[in-house]
Write a structure and sequence with these properties.
Blueprint lengths: L9 H15 L19 E4 L4 H4 L3 H10 L6 E6 L2 E6 L1 H11 L13 E5 L11 H19 L3 E6 L6 H13 L2 H6 L1 H15 L5 H14 L5 H24 L5 E2 L9 H10 L3 E4 L2 E4 L10 E4 L7 H16 L3 E5 L5 H13 L3 H4 L2 E4 L4 E3 L14 H19 L6 H18 L7 E3 L1 H5 L6 H17 L19 H8 L1 H10 L4 H20 L8 H25 L8
Parallel strand pairs: 4-5, 4-10, 5-6, 10-11, 12-13
Antiparallel strand pairs: 1-3, 2-3, 7-8, 8-9
This protein binds arginine.
The site of arginine has 9 residues, from loops.
Length: 569
């Protein structure tokens, strides 16, 4: 349960609802206001169709009658056909929104829900590629959004550190491994071995045999040489991943690779056995899912006795449930794994666990496509995430050198702009859609970009710095002096709702889009209403409060998305 907020437009909506609900004979909780179809109709709208039957009036007649009987100070109601629209006086709007806009709790709510967010989850010994960027960025944003709404959030990185591929890697390492290369460029060298393994496997039968043996050794649980080698690969890979996470500001509560569930695998197989859903097929064990409408069965143990990706996910899900008793468990993983997660949920359901398996949700996302096709990579295979960040930082440095050559900490700001540009570009699209990545567009300081919003934020900071007086606190300025702030107040006022909707749909884009509206309205307010050269001191003072609120809300919103907010750029 999440409580109602006192932020943004919510207090106004609540007042309107309280006035209207008795007229309609419904409870206030039953009444929700929408946005008017057209901005000029005001800030709120109530479609009257729903109440036609109960009131015995047609919707237009009802809207008209309600408008006639509506009396709230500072708010007018007007019927437009079947819609009842409400318009708030700009002074009331400004005072309602600005009263709490600079609170550190702006748009926060409380909640007793636990939300597990599993995200990023790259594979050990392979570079994090741009696909993992999306999981990392979307997952981290969702985690912060739920946290802002008061949830107890558990962030898990389900590293791909187990599976038959590690047998292959060990077999390859035994033949071609080079300790000094591993030291210098661990993931590069391991990838090289992996690629070579696949090239030579067909002509050298001893390779797959050794690989199988190595994975069996790993799964035996004995601390042998194979395990030592695997451990080393894991540690070296993690060290590289950590560097990228640090750049993106990404943190996890738990780094739990697939291997972490090793001692829970047998128990998971026993549990499936006890539920009577295991079937033997040619030496392998599987769960048939036809009854759940899934043709492909879920394989949980191979004929040579090793476990699978799905076995480890079943163990992980059960372990998470018993540890966290989650209200929601999100898996932020690309859409190519839809079948896998459907199988996971269906298997748990067949095992009689639907009470909680229904709380599992696969948060899918589309692919990243690059317009500049010929970006060659270190490996020649995939574009790594680190390379994308490097390239963006290089471009950001060039732009800053041109726009603001005297900037003191240009290097650091370039990195912040680069990260902000990439993160925002990823999150401004509906997550299911593919993202087309065009360097020029991503880093532009104008248009729908991260740098545009970062720049707007920095500009607010600069005005506040240049002002002789500190921004007035609530009560020290007159909101009635701010009629021109109407669009900005509406944009800021709708932000709390954007956060709630972003959580309800697991869609950070709704926050990115709300921030763009705020940025646009903020820039046009600033263009039309000079702050530092205002006609009167009172006016300058009130406008300074607006700029300070804009700065604060941008910082909160960009912070939720993972976009850094430098004070100067
Ligand atoms: N490591 C996998 C990959 O990179 C993603 C893991 C997703 N999470 C899970 N619980 N299966 O494709």
């Amino acid at each position: 349960m999440t409580n109602a907020t006192t932020f943004g437009l919510d207090p106004l909506a609540n007042r309107i609802i309280t006035a209207i609900a008795p007229e309609l004979g419904v409870s206030t909780a039953d009444l929700q206001l929408e946005r008017p179809r057209e901005e000029k109709h005001g800030e709120f709208s109530l479609p009257c169709f729903r109440f036609s039957k109960a009131t015995g009036k047609n919707p237009a007649q009802l809207a008209g009658d309600l408008a006639d009987g509506f009396h709230l100070e500072g708010i007018t109601a007007a019927a437009a056909g079947p819609f009842l629209n409400f318009k708030v006086d700009p002074a009331l709007l400004a005072s309602t929104v600005l009263e709490h806009a600079r609170s550190i709790d702006f748009a926060r709510t409380t909640s007793d829900e636990t939300t597990v967010v599993e995200f990023s989850s790259p594979n050990i010994a392979k570079p994090m590629h741009v696909g993992h960027l999306r999981s990392t960025v979307i997952g981290a944003a969702l985690a912060r959004i739920y946290e802002h709404l008061g949830h107890n959030v558990v962030r898990i990185n389900h590293l791909g550190d187990w599976g038959s591929q590690f047998g292959k890697l060990v077999a390859g390492w035994q033949r071609w491994g080079d300790a000094s290369k591993l030291e210098a460029d661990p993931i590069g060298h391991l990838l090289e071995i992996y690629v070579r393994y696949h090239k030579e496997e067909k002509d050298d039968e001893s390779l797959p045999a050794d690989a199988k043996k190595a994975f069996q050794e790993l799964e035996s649980g004995v601390d042998n040489e194979t395990r030592q080698t695997w451990k080393q690969f894991t540690e070296l890979s993690l060290r590289e991943f950590q560097r990228t996470y640090a750049r993106l500001g990404t943190e996890f509560d738990f780094l739990r690779g697939e291997s972490w569930y090793e001692d829970k695998l047998q128990d998971t197989l026993d549990f499936l056995e006890a539920a009577n859903i295991l079937e033997l097929d040619d030496g392998a064990w599987l769960v048939n899912l036809k009854s759940e409408g899934i043709k492909t069965p879920c394989l949980v143990k191979t004929a040579h006795g090793t476990t699978l990706y799905a076995t480890r996910d079943l163990a992980a899900a059960r372990s998470r449930w018993s540890e966290f008793q989650f209200d929601r468990c999100l898996y932020v993983v690309g859409s190519e794994q839809i079948l896998h997660f459907n199988q996971l949920k269906a298997t748990l359901k067949r095992a009689g666990e639907s009470e909680w398996s229904d709380r599992i949700e696969h948060i899918t996302f589309g692919l990243i496509r690059l317009t500049e096709g010929k970006l060659s990579t270190r490996s020649g295979l995939v574009l790594t995430l680190a390379e994308v960040l490097d390239r963006a930082a290089e471009l950001a440095r060039e732009i800053i050198a041109e726009k603001n050559p005297d900037l003191a900490n240009a290097e650091q700001v370039a990195e912040q702009v680069a990260v902000g540009a990439i993160v925002f570009h990823d999150l401004k699209h509906q997550r299911q859609k593919d993202v087309v990545f065009d360097w020029k567009e991503v880093l532009s300081f104008e248009g729908d970009t991260g740098p545009y919003l970062q720049y707007t934020h920095a500009r607010c900071c600069s005005i506040l710095r240049k002002s002789e007086k500190a921004a007035p606190t609530w009560g020290e300025f007159d909101p009635a002096l701010l009629p021109e702030s109407r669009d900005l107040m509406v944009a800021i006022g709708r932000f709390p709702q954007a956060i709630r909707e972003a959580a309800a749909k697991n869609e950070p884009m709704l926050i990115a889009q709300a921030l763009l509206k705020i940025g646009q309205a903020g820039n046009s307010f600033y263009r039309n209403c000079s702050v530092l050269k205002a006609e009167t001191p009172e006016l300058g003072n009130a406008r300074l409060a607006v700029m300070d609120s804009l700065r604060h809300v941008l910082a909160i919103g960009l912070g939720l998305l993972g976009v850094p907010t430098p004070k100067e750029m």
